[in-house]
User: Which sequence fits this backbone?
């Protein structure tokens, strides 16, 4: 297993940890490949009945590795076209619980939204900076975020790049509960164990019932998002400057 991704087994629950802490667990090419490969493997394993997804402190995931994006441009984006690890989270048959230990920003927020539900540690933060950085979302954000928090809050988060802390995330329905940071992983594993108590085929069918409606509802939004995102490529020379501007603007909250 690549060191950028850690997997530990807890009976029928797999704990998957994004592990690039020095880069706030941003999605390097190596991590993109490792996450896609690992999630597909776990989803195909009948012994795994629930997955807990988290990050190594201090962050959950900062989303795209903008340095790699600015340096490699289309080659970096092609990795998502080949096997989109962000959208994949929401396509798994296995229930996925997001244990949000720190900032989940932009692509990291999209990964979190792909989970079936989220538990936040008290250090969790959520933000969508696509507009500020100059990259359109392509991992399901415009469908999944309003489904969780309502249209108004979704647009406010996206248009204003507003950072939402754990308590506000609870109030607007983005997370189901907030726990102390040190209790987050044990609590998430305990909840995942309860999820995995049910027969795997029954749980998979139940999850399919919940997600099947997306074919005629938010699923269409996913298609529109994918088309528009692919049609508008970023301005490569401005990416790093935009990223730094966003970080400076939100530095006090993202520490």
Assistant:
């Amino acid at each position: 297993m690549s060191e950028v991704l850690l997997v530990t087994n807890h009976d029928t629950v797999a704990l998957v940890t994004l592990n690039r802490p020095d880069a706030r667990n941003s999605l390097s090419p190596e991590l993109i490949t490792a996450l896609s490969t690992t999630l597909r493997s776990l989803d195909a394993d009948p012994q795994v009945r629930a997955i807990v997804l988290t990050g190594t402190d201090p962050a959950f995931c900062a989303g795209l590795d903008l340095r790699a994006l600015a340096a490699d441009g289309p080659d970096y984006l092609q990795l998502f076209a080949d096997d989109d690890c962000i959208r994949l989270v929401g396509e798994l048959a296995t229930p996925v619980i997001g244990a949000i230990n720190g900032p989940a920003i932009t692509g990291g927020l999209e990964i979190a939204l792909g989970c079936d539900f989220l538990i936040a540690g008290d250090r969790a933060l959520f933000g969508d900076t696509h507009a500020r950085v100059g990259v359109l979302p392509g991992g399901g954000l415009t469908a999944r975020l309003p489904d969780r928090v309502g249209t108004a809050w979704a647009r406010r988060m996206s248009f204003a790049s507003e950072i939402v802390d754990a308590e506000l995330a609870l109030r607007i329905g983005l997370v189901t509960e907030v726990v102390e940071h040190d209790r987050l992983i044990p609590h998430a594993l305990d909840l995942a164990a309860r999820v995995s108590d049910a027969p795997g085929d029954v749980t998979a069918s139940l999850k399919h019932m919940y997600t099947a409606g997306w074919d005629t509802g938010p699923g269409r939004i996913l298609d529109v998002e994918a088309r528009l995102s692919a049609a508008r490529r970023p301005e490569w020379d401005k990416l790093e400057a935009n990223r730094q501007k966003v970080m400076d603007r939100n530095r006090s909250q993202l520490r």
